[in-house]
Each structure stands twice: as structure tokens, then as C-alpha cells.
Design goal:
The structure is a single chain. The longest helix is centred in the first third of the chain and has 53 residues, at about 1-55. About 85% of the residues lie in helices and about 0% in strands. α5 (about 130-145) crosses α8 (about 190-225), α6 runs antiparallel to α8 (about 190-225) and α8 packs parallel to α9. The two termini are about 50 Å apart. With about 280 residues, the chain is mainly alpha-helical. It has helices spanning about 1-55, 65-75, 80-110, 115-130, 130-145, 145-170, 175-185, 190-225, 230-240, 245-270. The protein is built from ten helices and no strands.
Amino acid sequence: METLTRRRGPDRDVKGSAASGPGDSGTSRRVVRVLTPLAYVAAVLAAWSAYVTLADVPSYLLPAPGDVLDAGLKLIQDGTLWPNLTYTLRNIVLGFVGGSLIGIALGWVLWASRTVREILAPYMVLLQAAPKIAVAPLLVLWFGLSLTSQYALILLLVFFPMATATVLGLKDVPADISTLGRLLHLSRWQYLRMIQLPAAVPALLAGAKIAVIDAMTGAFLAEYLASERGLGYLMVLGNTSSDTPLLIAAVLITVAVGLLGFGLVSLAERRLLRGRR
């Protein structure tokens, strides 16, 4: 028995080390994924601070990272940040959802009807090619300084990538599955719901990654031109009052909001497509 115990002991150690290996490796990869972007941010902040100090850059041109941090903390402490942030987030979410629904519906119509596709496709491309910085003042002129003009701009930016992704996704149904749907005598709605939409999910998520950034861009541009609230308004406030730390703090918060939206779509993509990989 002692001999068997001695022989089994090392085996257990080997199995234990082998079993713990993949877990340790996975933990290490997660730690690296978290620390790598933090290291990049630290390097940028260090370079920024060193440049401002060594070159003696005036604060009104480029404030030090500490001054920008103080401006951001002041926004939090005096209660200015939260109402402006929630205002922008609400506009982004509503514009993204509304533009996505319009884009998906229009994409299905373009896919289903060649006539509609030939008529509308050129105008959609022209509308998308038009510079939005030029279209935004027209929307303000037509709809006034209201939420309508802001949502109209966001919808214009969001619907095109979603419509394009929908058309590409609906075309991505394998031929054998399409044949199976016809053999089962599925109605058009059943075919769309049971076969086409599941096949189009990867393309729709890819379009959503672009659309969520476009929604953020539209919201900030609309607030920059015609709003008294929002992160875009804080940028205008910092610019007109020559408060450069406030301006840069608003820009950095804007970037964080964009990264948050993109990260949420990426998380949904990993969850929904987990079984396909």
C-alpha cells in the first residue's frame, strides 16, 4: 500500500499541475488584456505631462493632465456632468434604436424589391456622401432648435450602415437552407424570422458597431450646433470661455462614451455569436 501511495502521489501532482495550467494561462491572458490598454494610457499621460512641462506650454493651449482631471472632478462635484451626460446618452440610445429599426426595415425592402433598390439606392448614397457638418445647419433651419433636429441628424447617420448591413446579411443565407425554407412552404414572415434574421445577425452586429459610433457623432454634432445641454454643449462652453481644461475634459468624456457604446455592441456580439465560433 505504501508503494502504491508513493507511486500515485507524483501522478496526482502531475495531474494537478496539468489541470491548473490552462486556468492559470487564461487568467494571465485576461490580466494582460486589462493591463495593456492601461499601460498605453499611462504612457500617453506621461508623454503629455512631460511635453507640457519641458516645453513650457501655456495652459490655454494645452493644459497638463492634472488640470484636465481637476476640471472633470469639478464637473462631477458641482453637479454639471450628470444632467449633461444623461441628456447625451438618451439622445444616442433613442437615435441608435430608431435609426437601427428604420435601417433594418429599409434594408429588407431594398433586398426584397429590385425596383425599390434601383430607385432608392443612388439617393441613399448621395445622402450618405453629403457632409453632415453641412446638413446639420439645414436641419436646424427646418426643424428649429429642438430635439427633432437632433434626432433627425442621428437617424441620418445611423440608418445607412444598418440598411447596408441588413441587405448584406439577408443575402448571406446559404443556398441549401434557402431551399429547405421553400420546401417547408414557409411564409415570407416565417422565412424572415426563422431563417434570414438569424443568418443576418453577424452582419447586423458589424453594422451596429459603426452605427453606434455614428449615433454618438450625430448627437455631439447636434448639441454642438443647437443645444443648451449635453456633452457637445460643454465643449462649446469650454471653447467660448477659453476654458481649455473643460474643453479637453468634455472631449475625453465623449471618447469614453463612444468606447462604452462600442464595447457594449462587442459584448453582445460575443454573447450572440458564441455558438458559431
